[in-house]
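Support reply, case 0932

Customer input (verbatim):
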Amino acid sequence: MPASSAPRAPTPEPDHPLARAFASFTEAAGSLERTYGQLQAQVAQLRQELEVTNRDLAKSLEENRRIRERLRRILEGLPCGVLVMEAGPQISILNPEAERLLGGQVSDVDALPPLLGAALSQARETGEERELLLAPGGEGNPNWVAVRHAWLERDEARNTSVFILRDVSEAKKLEQEREQVRRQ
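Our regenerated output:
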């Protein structure tokens, strides 16, 4: 035997169990590689879809924030009072004009003057506008308020009421002056 050639291991026959096991292993490894490649492609695609969805969600959240801010500003600038009441006695929204008409911040209907609480209940039940005299306003002038109700949500889970409060003191004052002139 020449010194330059090393003895080689005998190659197993194709029907030999070791050859079959090696072929089966090679086939399984190839299948795993293909499956891994497919999974990587799917993960990359899902990652792209998630990025698009996250971008869209971020845009939607920003748009919702802008809309909420616009609605808050509109509510603050309304010349009439807005009072929003959830299912219980909790007042969830009270704009600045409503605060002015009610004489300050109120968080619960039970904290309102009884006459106003009754007017709110009656407006909710009948849907009709009610006018009532609240505590005298500045300079001792009567403070007349008209109360109107609308349902924001009305179902088994939630009952949200919106009350519109308008200052009708000037109209009442003019009406009383006309009545006095008519009597003279």
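We compared this against your earlier run and they match. Two observations from our side: The longest helix spans residues 17-77. DSSP finds four helices and five strands in the chain. Please reopen the case if you see a mismatch on your end.
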